[in-house]
Write a structure and sequence with these properties.
The chain has 4 helices and 8 strands. It is α/β, with parallel strands linked by helices and about 180 residues long.
């Protein structure tokens, strides 16, 4: 893919809480390694990096602000000059000023990574596409968890991940893998 010099890397919810065992079985165990590789590439090429942090409104959430799970994992600590977006709902555009910051900076191409594929990643990518941004979702730099559907049928994290990417592909975003960038 052709990567613009000002393409923004949006890293969603790479906080300590996402590693909590109570969230259950996940897919893409190498996702964080891919995110670290992409982050390194963005930093080396001086492209914009945006860190998205979830501040939950629910006290039983792994992202509740009053405990350590809300903090970024050490390897994803924002560096000076990198943007921080704090959100209270899955969509990183909702009530955060993200769209205005991107427009002001003239950024049109977004590369989205993080967690969870079917939650914050999907909702952010949908909005990005709806707002006219050129959104890319890096499938091997995202992950999710086993989840039952509305009718109670269990689905593996791999199935949930695949369906979420299928929802996005072509309509809201282009799904790619990290090799296509690196």
């Amino acid at each position: 893919m052709e990567l613009k010099t000002n393409a923004a890397l949006i890293i969603i919810d790479q906080q300590k809480g996402i590693l909590h065992p109570r969230l259950g079985r996940r897919n893409n165990p190498q996702a964080e390694e891919r995110i670290v590789e992409l982050l390194g590439y963005w930093r080396r090429t001086a492209r914009p990096v945006i860190h998205v942090q979830h501040l939950s409104r629910s006290a039983d959430s792994v992202f509740w602000p009053q405990q350590s799970g809300v903090e970024f994992q050490d390897r994803f600590q924002p560096m000076t000059g990198e943007r921080l977006i704090q959100k209270q709902v899955p969509d990183a555009f909702c009530a955060t000023g993200l769209e205005a910051q991107l427009r002001e900076a003239g950024i049109e191409q977004l590369v989205i990574v993080g967690v969870a594929t079917n939650n914050s990643v999907e909702s952010t990518a949908r909005t990005a596409g709806n707002l006219g941004f050129e959104a890319r979702v890096v499938e091997d730099a995202c992950f999710t968890f086993d989840k039952a559907d509305y009718f109670g049928n269990p689905h593996t994290a791999e199935e949930v991940h695949a369906m979420s990417l299928g929802n996005l592909q072509g309509e809201y975003a282009t799904v790619i893998n990290s090799e296509q960038i690196l």
